[in-house]
Design goal:
Strand 9 (about 225-230) and strand 10 form a beta hairpin. The chain has a 5-stranded mixed β-sheet, sandwiched between helices. It has a 4-stranded mixed β-sheet with strand order 8-13-12-11, sandwiched between helices. Strands 2-3 form a two-stranded antiparallel sheet. About 40% of the residues lie in helices and about 25% in strands. It has 2 domains: about 1-200, 3-Layer(aba) Sandwich (Peroxisomal Thiolase, Chain A, domain 1); about 210-349, Peroxisomal Thiolase, Chain A, domain 1, CATH 3.40.47.10. The protein contains 10 helices and 13 strands.
Length: about 350
């Protein structure tokens, strides 16, 4: 099994962080008692700018969960199809060879699920197996690759497509002035990514998927997720997330590598979910690596913010297209998210 394509797609609306800070200060003007705190929080997320699903003035006109979700559906179909089309072109495959389509998102819902809309929009085979996944959040990019790999193990003559669309700004809660929501208003952005995983019958070049590992930490449901109300998705984000990374990620990786006869020193490329500055710093500490080892993740964070499940796929795209490791290089692709949990993918370039 190997990854033969990885591509991203972003909305047309890109704004520098300072512009968004000004807009949010105005958005919350009636209730924000300490604008300087919002500024400090935004300055600490290490984000230069972000893409928004709709022009910034549209957010003032949307007031219900239905309004926001309608915007999600429209943008998700467009961005998801763009990302998948680019991945297909990059891989040079016939779209009819896609046997399964995995769709992941945590920022909106639809029924029929978005994968059906993408199949129709791109004229994929009506026999394509549809696997929509909701609720995994930031970890879903890595988990989606793992589940796509499971599929092509059973169907080596096929390609499994993974599409992630995360329009995090459409979950913004106007009434929520908690520190967690204020941080998220400066950290999360919008975008999509697609990855193609091919079975062993394919000869296209790409990193080989050697193994995957899923780890759920018992009784940690309250660390991250949504509280779903009539207002939509209200963020649950514990300050213990960096601690979770420090406590668990290193031992998860060591156990995974030992199973494959490897050690951390054998890993030549780390493909990590962007998280945020505190999460990336905790990840570096947990893995015993310096900032340079995760520089691509830091670059993606600065450029687009945290894209939830799409983030690690965008980091993978950078390695696939601009920073390709030398043949034979071992690599770990990893993310953590609601559950609380980790997903690891071992690659060989």
């Amino acid at each position: 099994m190997k990854i033969i394509g990885a591509a991203s797609a972003f909305p047309e609306n890109y704004y520098p962080q300072e512009f968004l800070l000004t807009a949010l200060t105005e958005y919350w003007a009636a209730k924000l008692q300490n604008p300087q705190m919002l500024r400090r929080l935004h300055e600490h997320v290490c984000v230069d700018g972000r893409y928004l699903a709709v022009p910034v003035e549209e957010y003032y006109r949307m007031s219900t969960f239905g309004h926001f979700n309608d915007a999600w559906m429209k943008a998700a179909e467009e961005l998801g199809s763009q990302a998948l089309c680019r991945a297909i072109t990059q891989a040079g495959i016939d779209p009819s060879s896609i046997g399964a389509l995995f769709f992941v998102s945590i920022s909106g819902i639809s029924s029929p699920s978005m994968d059906a809309r993408l199949i129709n929009k791109l004229n994929l085979s009506p026999s394509t197996k549809r696997i929509p996944i909701f609720g995994l959040g930031c970890v879903a990019g890595a988990a989606g690759i793992a589940r796509a790999t499971d599929y092509v193990k059973a169907y080596p003559a096929e390609v499994a497509a993974l599409v992630s669309v995360e329009l995090c700004t459409l979950t913004l809660q106007r009434e929520d002035l908690t520190v967690a929501n204020l941080i998220s208003s400066g950290l999360f952005g919008d975008g999509a990514a697609a990855v193609l995983v091919a079975g062993d019958d394919y000869e296209q070049p790409g990193p080989e998927v050697i193994d995957t590992q899923s780890t759920l930490y018992p009784d940690t449901e309250g660390v991250m997720g949504w509280k779903v109300s009539e207002k939509g998705f209200e963020l649950v984000l514990s300050p213990t997330v960096p601690k979770m990374a420090r406590t668990h990620l290193g031992q998860d990786v060591d156990r995974f590598l030992e199973k494959n006869g490897l050690r951390r020193s054998d890993i030549g490329a780390w493909i990590l979910h962007t998280g945020g500055p505190k999460v990336l710093e905790a990840t570096q500490e947990a893995l015993g690596v310096d900032r340079a080892a995760l520089e691509t993740s830091w670059e993606c964070l600065r450029a687009t913010g945290n894209l939830s499940s799409a983030s690690v796929l965008c980091v993978l795209e950078q390695f696939m297209t601009k920073k390709r490791p030398a043949p034979g290089t071992w690599s770990i692709l990893a993310a953590m998210g609601p559950g609380f949990c980790s997903e690891l993918v071992l690659l060989r370039w």
